[in-house]
User: Fold this.
Amino acid sequence: MTPLRLLWYCLWVAPHALQGIILFAMLRRRLDRQFPMFFLYTAFEVLQFVVLFTISRSHFHFGPGYARAYSVGLALSTAIRFGVIYELFRHFFRRYPALGGAGALLFRGATIVLLLLAVGLAVSSPGSSADFLLNATYALDRTVSILQCGLLISLFSFSRYFLLSWRSHAFGIALGLGIFATVELATSAVWLHLGTFGNPVINLVTMATYNGCVLIWIFYLVAPEREPQMTVNALPKYDLEIWNQELQRLLQQ
Amino acid sequence: MTITLILAVLAFLALVFLVRLARGRASVSKVLENPTEHIRSVDVEAFRNLVDRDEEEFLRTNLPPAEFRKIQRERLRATVEYVSCAAQNAGVLLRLADAGRRSSDPATAEAAEKLVNNALRLRLYALHTIPRLYVGMIFPGARISPAGIAESYEQMTRLVVLLGCLQYPTRGVSAAL
Assistant:
């Protein structure tokens, strides 16, 4: 086995073994009830790996049977990831009821705008492969990447503008998913340009990124959640004067 | 090729944004440790005068149109500055109140919850008021009056005082904040 092949196997096996730890940690800390879609996603990834690894070790190897199982798994995994993103939106805005309406508007608005953008790109740049089905798959892959990456960036930008605090677990899940979505966006664009899947370097980069994302999930889900402490000393005098005036006015009413 | 490049650059920028966001999470606790550095002065009375509709109508009827447009642009520029300051202060108070929401005292937690909601509304209001004010600078004759934001800011400052009194009843407002 060549060193590159060994590296490839390590990058393939390692994240799924680590995802087993995530599942265990989530069950132990009862996070599966808070993030059921993320729990489902992690469990599905582990199951998919077991199936694909078994197929690759059988007489099918990495042939058409493997490719079919991989495609079905990828489609299901992608669908579940949308569920995870929706779960993050809901989890986040549940903490801030005043933004509930704006949050729903953001999710719907961002989805429509990103979908229009992605479809527009798919029509204007249909891909360089001669195979129609392959081109459609590439275009769909890119559309999904744009949607997932865009939705997560919208959520992060929104929380940044409103200076909202994230619970550590939700932030970790969103960060890992966001990083993976950005790398997937770049690779999907490259696949479409090359007109072929399977560039070894890009495969390794994607797999290494996924390993990094799983480590981020472990870090945030296993580590105890930190709560910000209110250790405030003093505010400038002029503000206190205004606030004291307001208090006086309030008391006089 | 161009679209591939654009998407790759956008993905890279998104990645940088996410990494910076992860590193910037620590800044939340810095704000809580020393809010004085982040609070900007807002004279509520001056702000109220600036966004007063009657004041604007008075200027509109008593000044020549060219002069009114010039003065109105200046007033709107100052209003943008006030709204930005109020939104920034709301952000600081939001973080303070967010920490207060986890208080074991129900009254403190309730006051903190109200403050969070008010601060969020103010920032939301600032988000769509500032572009309108800029439009107003381009068309100074248009009637744009963000008076509600001054009310919202006043309501928020009252809640800050209330929250401070609830958290530190024996030490007064300044000690609480």
Observations:
- Chain A has one domain: 3-225.
